[in-house]
């Protein structure tokens, strides 16, 4: 029997075995998520569309359906205590259910929830938004007839501690039944709850809570997820009225669960009465062991791990915190694609399907009892903690509990975690030095006092590099991660945060009638991805920095032998389990219709165990030097791309030589007035200031190209002077005179008969530390349509965020996107772009092209309309002018740190004190084509 047939046979056999006993049945009264809802009757007591009965989809948050009032956690809410949602829903119950146990389950409702069935209370008011709760409604139902469910949901709680823990945080506050509601149908005698502890050595323990008076045996059998039986059947005898039982088993050589190998099993429990099954319950789990070794690290299955994580709110812009399994799959895949291995549930437990996806695709999870700067009182917290652990205990992805965030810790609850959790997972206080971990948020890179870099606790910032707008996340990450990777007491960390919390305002529209997405100013614009998961520049930086295949810096010279030094930064995977491919790319110039050509080549994967270093060996074709760039792509064992690295074969000088025409049949003519030099060449006319050397006007036969007023040195003295004009062979040269005191920066223009123009600036940055180094020109932004360029792209860069791009030919249209704000069009147009070879500027008039023969030149496109934060940490710095060509650019800060404190890459540019010696000046060479072609 072939493997596929065997797997199908095992699955059918498994299903047949389950059919012999009653399983737990789930009957949804609501929909299953924001992609599948059921309308219930609804009445909102305050705010939008209040005071009338209508309908609302369930699950949902009522603000996103046009009801009530939008509230961000910091906002003072005048409707507090007044805004409630009244729900009604009619449903049928089969007569055959009579005699069974029927639980009414709410997966989540915000915040206080009172429930009635057929006019009678189902039980006590539930207080707490993010926790599944249930009522036994067996005695309240009309069997074989209609039933009425009524729920009153208060947006704010009558319990002040619930409001302190949940309603006053730095996030949007919503109301409503936002997770599914269903009936759980069980036989009268049943298995009520199961808690599993499955260790890496194959030991299996399950604690079962039973509801039985006459059943006399319970069994457990392990299976693969495909239904193939593994291990031996285990059982336990029951005495009359047993309420709990523990089953143990041992599986030899189990496949272990890790984020790199998320192998799961399932176990089938059967409750037997006189040898006949009366209830069957199936649970998925994974074999893995998590150990916290003080003053050392986190060990999973005996291997020390470092966490590459992100904080994640349960959030979607058009539905608030009402989500779906499809969105959970989307989010986990995006995290895995960024090479993350961990996620923190900030600041409350997630949907059950999110943990299911973390289990199946592989992410470590830090699961969190809510609490921001306030916490639950002990009675309320005890109840909610039990609901949290009962709901999430069996997920192998959950490896740590967090008891509140940033001061929202009720320390009286700490011992209860171990008491309630069969696995005794470790407990953290986010933002405290507690339990052997210093989780301080947003520490500066060089923060070294006592209890951090020079302390004895393991460092694990549960929030770092706060990603306001385009700052943080990727900006500074390489510095932080390299420090973390090499520090034995660093256990990793969690970026803040995954996605922008931009919520659709049903009470507002944009002037053009389009949807208005509100991030509450700078409070919600913190994501690596946008509200609808639009990928920002930092997404790709994170992907490269956190790649488990670490490719070291490599210069491609003429003697290149195809080898790439690499380090295996996986924890459990050999490099030879991954696959690699290579590609050579040749790009065209700015005028050809066919823009690039490529050829592939094989790359051998070496056998490198975790933490080992070695070499990837490419088999290059003999003509590889004829190409411009080389790409190496790594793919993990599940065919997920880890990253594609790119390396230049051709340097800018080579490409410039192929496109710049220094000769031609055209004639040159030059004239001068009191203030201008004017030069004509092949239909191009240029005017330069005789005093400053600046380009004052450019035109050709089709009109003016409005690039003017340059070059202007940024953070350098514009002391070009003593200009003269001369003829040198077939060229005209306009140049300044060097003077050690008054004219030590020099400018030279060379106009070729072809019409091409060369500009060379020799200059000294104005000081030892400089933020910006380069030259500026003026160009009206209103005339720009887009750019096509060869360089590293397509996203803009900062000095402390240079990773993530690729060498190649890129194009993008003009846009006004400001990261984290509408219209969320990426990549952004404005900003710095790295490693320019040439750039063709597409304008509303005529195009023009600029090329360089220098390496590491940045081109800057205009100045974004930046907003800032209250601490002025984020504010980026841009040059004057409109278009710039730079040899040093600025870094960017985050919401919580200045750029200089994010690490060495965030510091200013440093240049040697040249003492104004011409031979030591920086040199920038640019070539301009103003022909309009």
TrEMBL record:
<dbReference type="InterPro" id="IPR013783">
    <property type="entry name" value="Ig-like_fold"/>
</dbReference>
<dbReference type="InterPro" id="IPR036156">
    <property type="entry name" value="Beta-gal/glucu_dom_sf"/>
</dbReference>
<dbReference type="GO" id="GO:0016787">
    <property type="term" value="F:hydrolase activity"/>
</dbReference>
<dbReference type="InterPro" id="IPR011013">
    <property type="entry name" value="Gal_mutarotase_sf_dom"/>
</dbReference>
<dbReference type="Pfam" id="PF02837">
    <property type="entry name" value="Glyco_hydro_2_N"/>
</dbReference>
<keyword id="KW-0378">Hydrolase</keyword>
<keyword id="KW-0732">Signal</keyword>
<feature type="domain" description="Glycosyl hydrolases family 2 sugar binding">
    <location>
        <begin position="54"/>
        <end position="186"/>
    </location>
</feature>
<feature type="signal peptide">
    <location>
        <begin position="1"/>
        <end position="21"/>
    </location>
</feature>
<dbReference type="InterPro" id="IPR006102">
    <property type="entry name" value="Ig-like_GH2"/>
</dbReference>
<dbReference type="InterPro" id="IPR004199">
    <property type="entry name" value="B-gal_small/dom_5"/>
</dbReference>
<dbReference type="InterPro" id="IPR017853">
    <property type="entry name" value="GH"/>
</dbReference>
<dbReference type="Pfam" id="PF00703">
    <property type="entry name" value="Glyco_hydro_2"/>
</dbReference>
<dbReference type="InterPro" id="IPR006101">
    <property type="entry name" value="Glyco_hydro_2"/>
</dbReference>
<dbReference type="Pfam" id="PF02836">
    <property type="entry name" value="Glyco_hydro_2_C"/>
</dbReference>
<protein>
    <recommendedName>
        <fullName>beta-galactosidase</fullName>
        <ecNumber>3.2.1.23</ecNumber>
    </recommendedName>
</protein>
<comment type="subunit">
    <text>Monomer.</text>
</comment>
<feature type="domain" description="Beta galactosidase small chain/">
    <location>
        <begin position="732"/>
        <end position="848"/>
    </location>
</feature>
<feature type="domain" description="Glycoside hydrolase family 2 catalytic">
    <location>
        <begin position="290"/>
        <end position="550"/>
    </location>
</feature>
<feature type="domain" description="Glycoside hydrolase family 2 immunoglobulin-like beta-sandwich">
    <location>
        <begin position="192"/>
        <end position="288"/>
    </location>
</feature>
<dbReference type="InterPro" id="IPR014718">
    <property type="entry name" value="GH-type_carb-bd"/>
</dbReference>
<comment type="similarity">
    <text>Belongs to the glycosyl hydrolase 2 family.</text>
</comment>
<dbReference type="InterPro" id="IPR008979">
    <property type="entry name" value="Galactose-bd-like_sf"/>
</dbReference>
<dbReference type="InterPro" id="IPR006103">
    <property type="entry name" value="Glyco_hydro_2_cat"/>
</dbReference>
<dbReference type="InterPro" id="IPR050347">
    <property type="entry name" value="Bact_Beta-galactosidase"/>
</dbReference>
<dbReference type="Pfam" id="PF02929">
    <property type="entry name" value="Bgal_small_N"/>
</dbReference>
<keyword id="KW-0326">Glycosidase</keyword>
<dbReference type="InterPro" id="IPR006104">
    <property type="entry name" value="Glyco_hydro_2_N"/>
</dbReference>
<keyword id="KW-0106">Calcium</keyword>
